[in-house]
Amino acid sequence: MRRKITYLTIFFLTFLCSISQLHAQSFTLQGKVSDEDMNPIELATVAVVKQGKVAMTNLKGEFNMTLSSDDSVVVRFSMVGYKTKTRVLRRPKGKQTLQIQLFSDNELEEVTVVQRRRQTGQTQTIDTKDIKTMPSASGNAVEDAIKLQAGVSSRDELSSQYNVRGGSFDENSVYINNVEVYRPFLVRSGQQEGLSIINSDMVEKVEFSTGGFEAKYGDKMSSALDITYKRPKKFEASVSASLLGASAYIGLGSKKFTWTNGIRYKTNRYLLGTLETKGEYNPSFLDYQTYLSYSPNKRWTIDLIGNISENRYNFEPEDRETKFGTLENVKAFKVYFDGQEKDLFRTYFGTFSITRHFTEKTSLALLFSAFYTKEQERYDIQGQYWLTQTETSENLGVGTYMEHARNYLTANVETFKLRFSHKTKKHEILAGASYRMENIKENSREYEMRDSAGYSIPHTGKDLKMIYSLSARNQLKANRIEAYLQDTWRFTSPGEHTFFTLNYGVRFSYWDFNKESIVSPRVSLSIVPAFNHDITFRFATGLYYQAPFFKELRDTATVDGMTYATLNEKIKSQRSIHAIAAFDYRFKMKQRQYRFSAEAYYKAMSNLVPYSVNNLKVTYSGNNSASGYAMGLDMKLYGEFVPGTDSWLSLSLMKTQMKLNGRTIPLPTDQRYAVNLFFTDYFPGTERWKMSLKLIFADGLPFSAPHRELERSSFRSTAYKRADIGMSYRLLENENKTKKSIFKNIWLGVDCLNLFGINNVNSYYWITDITNQQYAVPNYLTGRQINGRILFEF
Known about the structure:
The protein is mainly beta and 794 residues long. The protein is built from 6 helices and 46 strands. The protein has a 22-stranded antiparallel beta barrel. A 5-stranded mixed beta sheet has the order 8-13-14-11-12. Strands 3-2-5-6 form a 4-stranded antiparallel beta sheet, with no helix packed on it.
């Protein structure tokens, strides 16, 4: 009996000692992480790598975790945009409290920092660090990066325009430093377009939303692109040149003053030489921009942006030969031309803002912006053509066509805007109100004649008429009032392990042209669940309007063969209800960071103004006569496919329908699928050689014969397939100025545009034979071409 008691006593004492030892081997670590101004840093990572333990700070910057004790415990504190800090605890016991202060990492470019932040809203930040070496035919680097995003499509490498989730080019809003910008009205092809208003050399941050965006963005139905220009802290400059153009950038900075300047020149004559239409191409596109920011003290900031752009497109066609059809049914189209085309698009854009900073987190800004454009589109082109069946040498059509245009347009848009911003620990409140004055004058006259075997089509036997003739003389003078209020609220669950970001707001607009008032409520919610902080759920919905501007107003009516365009004062805003559910997952593979995103959406649309698309020209019917929907799924995998580089792969699936005059048809931008890949890599053993690859494979779009009812869109063009590859060599690397050289970097590059020489189609030319049968002759885009480039960075 005593022996049993002794054994039990020994066992009990041993158990107590074990419990005491186990308790001594664990401890609690708590504390707070803040920045240099002692503001809490939320979602900072607290990691003990050896123990495989990771925690994240809450909205107050606080953390709490249980760890195993050891001779030394290494704790690492990190957050994107801040220098990582490490603390070593010696034989920690009980409860340990740390107050950690992280400092900004000034060695990282801010655009890179923001890109890697968690997306907690419907606006994503686009990485722009590789756009300078990205192969590009258009020279518009920012838009080229946008086109490769999920849900975005483009079928013209010469253009900066893009479609988002079934929307037209006009449904995308673009902002530069909180001011909405515009593009020319009369541009109808990528050959005419030239340079976009966004100067990629001056860009610091690019934010983009494909739907469900915040109330601060204007009344557009598809997307919002938000550009922030640089404010350099010291001298920086770059000069680049290629066979397609050249650019120069210089930036100056001090504590109170920053000034950036950019000038660009582009000529795509070399690239247009690959088109089937041969002739004398003489395009010339020139652009100058400046951005000045002055802060005399902490309370005031004055900003000024100026832009002058002149795009000229001169063209004298000579001949063209196009073969199209199938292997068993090949047709040949041969044309000899007379005439010329001369286009001018001259634009001026400027903004002035003054901001009063009441505190570091509260400010009020007054902005004034002005946009002016003068546009001329003039051409007289005659073509004598032969359409032949190659197998039998039979002439299907022989004749002449004549195209004429004298289109002139001037536009002034002036805006006064008041913007308020206030931040607290959990809320970020934005409010704004604007008054816009719009003045647009149009004087257009164009016609098209087709003749086959001596007969003008159409004809009555007595009268000869043009197949198409348009006359328009309009002036729009209108004023628009807009206002918005929104709040971004960040909060946690009671246990402070689940993170929520709620954005809610409302937008109001009134236009005195059609006496219409619209109210647009919008809300989005993101959730970072407690069970896995690498997962984010996002939801968004809202009522979005496409406020009519000049193009949507032009209502056409045909009288005795002449089409007249007048402004419809009864037109209403197109309307779309967005419903979006998204899932983001961040993970590591082979010590590399990746992010997978999937976003399902449904857009119910009403009061639609039907339109047709020919190349870049969007022609509206001028009345609200349709309804429809767009639904789809966008997926994207982004990460370091190769260490030290960023690449991504996106897949988009979409279906659209529109009900028009009792018939159900797809929208003109019904691209059912699209796959985009951007891949970067370094040569083995060196980081001097860099490769960039762009691949696009997208479905064809619906189309129909011109000047006919839209509901007859019964054809679909061929799929768009394109591959561009660029090779860059860093001749000089001197980022840290360790070498005695004025240069920071020197890059040499060569691009192969349209690597596989695929004949893509972006529009069709229609000819008519004597029986009034029409044939669609494809207009092919650019072919394979080599481009050399050089970049100097100071």
